[in-house]
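Reading a protein record of the kind used here takes little practice once its layout is understood. Each number in the token line that follows is a code from a learned vocabulary of backbone shapes. One such record is shown here in full, so that the layout can be seen directly:
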Amino acid sequence: MAGQKTDARDVHVGRRIAEQRKKSSLTQKRVAQSFGMSAAQLQKYEKGINRISAIHLEILSRMTGMPIDYFFDGMNRSDDIPLQGFSEPPQQAFAEQSRSQNSWIGLVDVVAKHVTENFSEKGRREFAAAVQALDEKLSG
């Protein structure tokens, strides 16, 4: 992206990159390796000196488990285009639950919603029977 000037938006995205990289216990070296660049270049992204490419942001999103829009949340906009536009609803970040909570509950909720919305009554009964059979096998 040679020739493009960076601005406050790049600084915002860079701060969010650094913040999430640290929260995910990833080193600059590890992230830079996955991008195929030096840690010094990643540092330039984190400081907003250079603009990160969409491809690298997508890789970081997968590495950290955060949706891409997380890196733009709270950023000042320089246009009048609505935030949602014609896009899909925002993704929810995966948040690990505390050890005292069942970490599978979120998955159960998502699967139940999908089955309810997309399966016939017969299909739902068959799916529930399969889950029950799995429970019996796992319970031994």
